Amino acid sequence: MLSRLRASRAVRLVVRRFGVHRAAMLMGLAQLPVLRILQLALQRFPRDRHIVVMGSPLDRFADNAAYLYVHLSEHPTDLQAVWVSGSPEVVRRLRSRGYLAERRWSPRGVWTTLRAGTFV
């Protein structure tokens, strides 16, 4: 997608005319109304304080978030830890061990993330 943007004549014209930093700022300003509407809509969405959605950069199961996730999953509390990843292999591996895991952009992954009260 980024390569298509770079190939676009309109994008090249805007970058040449205003510079990269100003063009990026213009894109950010153009996004503000959409982001504000999303923010207002999502504020009305009911959240469950007991669902904790966790993940790690680069779609890995690693770092401190992974240790916290395993701890929350193996020790009974009122919190429900769910690992959200873009990697189908990570999700498959966690599910095979009995942990809760969802793909990032799957319907269940989006639904779980929308309902979550906490994000790590």
How are the SSEs ordered, and which strands pair?
Layout: H1 2-7, H2 9-18, H3 20-43, E1 48-54, H4 63-74, E2 80-85, H5 88-96, E3 101-103, H6 107-115, E4 116-119
Parallel strand pairs: 1-2, 1-4, 2-3
Helix pairs in contact: 2-3
Order of helix and strand elements from N to C terminus: HHHEHEHEHE
Structural class: alpha/beta
Q: What is the rounded Rg?
A: 19 Å
Q: Treating each run of at least 4 consecutive H or I residues as one helix, how many helices? A: 6
On the 0 to 100 scale, the average pLDDT is 89
Bin the helical content: 55-70%
Describe the structure in brief.
This protein is an alpha/beta fold and 120 residues long. It has helices at residues 2-7, 9-18, 20-43, 63-74, 88-96, 107-115, and strands spanning 48-54, 80-85, 101-103, 116-119.
Give keywords.
single chain, 120 residues, alpha/beta, 4-stranded parallel beta sheet, 6 helices, 17% strand
Structural account:
Helix content is 58%, strand content 17%. The chain has helices at residues 2-7, 9-18, 20-43, 63-74, 88-96, 107-115, and strands spanning 48-54, 80-85, 101-103, 116-119. It is α/β, with parallel strands linked by helices and 120 residues long. Helix 2 crosses helix 3. The protein contains 6 helices and 4 strands, in the order αααβαβαβαβ. It starts with a helix and ends with a strand. The relative contact order is 0.14. A 4-stranded parallel sheet has the order 3-2-1-4, with helices on both faces.
